[in-house]
Design a protein that fits this description.
112 residues, alpha+beta, 4-stranded antiparallel sheet, 4 strands
Length: 112
């Protein structure tokens, strides 16, 4: 085996044993879980989200602005028991699952 290929194999084997590799695995599992979860679709209105998923457990005030500025729109977050929904003005830009367990690596939900 050539020295460069051998080095790459060695680095890969070390990387697979590192904590970063397990964090990457958790991220992949999180993405797969989000794909299978029933989450609000990008572009849905606040009314559509509330009609399908019910009232959120908490509505956070908009952040950003001023008002309806094209370059700095207000972002609003609604919290549900298993996910958070982020709105730009009044339409969904993203929906994110909350941590599956306290041991899961990754960012903590905002406000916790």
């Amino acid at each position: 085996m050539k020295p460069i290929a051998l080095s790459l194999v060695f680095v890969a084997s070390i990387a697979l044993q590192s904590p970063m590799a397990s964090a990457d695995t958790l991220l992949i599992e999180r993405v797969q879980a989000e794909r299978g979860a029933a989450l609000p679709a990008r572009g849905n209105s606040m009314d559509q989200v509330q009609a399908r998923f019910g009232a959120p457990t908490q509505k956070y005030p908009p952040v950003g602005g001023p008002s309806n500025s094209k370059h700095n729109p207000p972002i609003t977050r609604w919290a549900y028991p298993t996910f958070n929904v982020y709105f730009e003005n009044s339409h969904v830009v993203d929906a994110v699952l909350i941590k599956a367990s306290p041991m899961e690596l990754g960012p903590a939900p905002v406000g916790n």
